[in-house]
Amino acid sequence: MVDAQMARGKIDGQGMHEQAYGVQPGTSVLERETMTSLEFYGIDAIHLKARKELLPGRLIVLEGTDGVGRTTQLRLLRPWLESSGYAVVDTEMTRSDLVGAGLKQAKEGHTLGPITLNLFYVTDFVDRFEQQILPALRAGFIVLTDRYIYSLMARALVRGADDRWIRSIYGLALKPDAVFYLKIGLNDLVPRVLQSGGFDYWESGMDMRLGDDLYESFINYQKSLLAQFDKMTDHYHFQVIDATQPVDRIIELLKRRILPHLPQG
Ligand SMILES: Nc1ncnc2c1ncn2[C@@H]1O[C@H](COP(=O)(O)OP(=O)(O)OP(=O)(O)O)[C@@H](O)[C@H]1O
Ligand SMILES: [Mg+2]
After folding, report:
1. Is the pTM above the cut of 0.85?
2. Which residues form the domain of 57?
């Protein structure tokens, strides 16, 4: 009886969300409550489909270049989701138990070659995918990820990695429920990065020495990265958000766009 009332409550509330947030009219509660799809960009490398895995969680990605404001938004999204009753897991690059520390250490030495650097990042991603992201999705968590495969691919491609190789490696990634791309131009990015501590060696692509100094290299490196993100936008269905807007405006946009993806709508 209580369940029936709750179900009715959800159905009653559904029309409001459809109007307010643009959910496809006629989408049933059951359809909306389906799992994160078992869709991959390339191969299903660990046979999740064959095992008929169920992933009742949601995978939400925040992408964008260095210093654009991803952490700022994720710090606001997590408590919002938790206060709505969702269990949340967050993850970001170099946080794998297996190689996170080693990757950071190797980068400090500035001695990694481009192929090793890519493989190190791939290992970090796959370890987090298998050990953090998939278990959380299986357990019904909302997974918030600070960057996903797109930043990794962009970084690899600007370093001259073969496009087919990179796409095939990262093809084992699950397609997220939503990818939000915080988009910014160089003119707005530079003061933001300066304000938050200045240019760092890797964020400036200094391993490739794209200029006489850190500033020049930063400009050239970030220009190339932004071009890669632009190229990926349609193919990977990025939902583009103008990152030059104030923090509170961006968070409102994100919440509004995330809401229809949540199990309770
Ligand atoms: N919408 C915004 N408008 C103005 N400044 C912002 C905005 N969002 C974030 N900032 C500021 O920009 C700086 C970088 O923000 P933040 O650390 O969130 O970026 P990030 O994308 O996580 O960076 P990183 O790539 O280093 O992890 C901080 O000083 C932050 O206060
Ligand atoms: Mg950050």
Report:
1. yes
2. 34-261
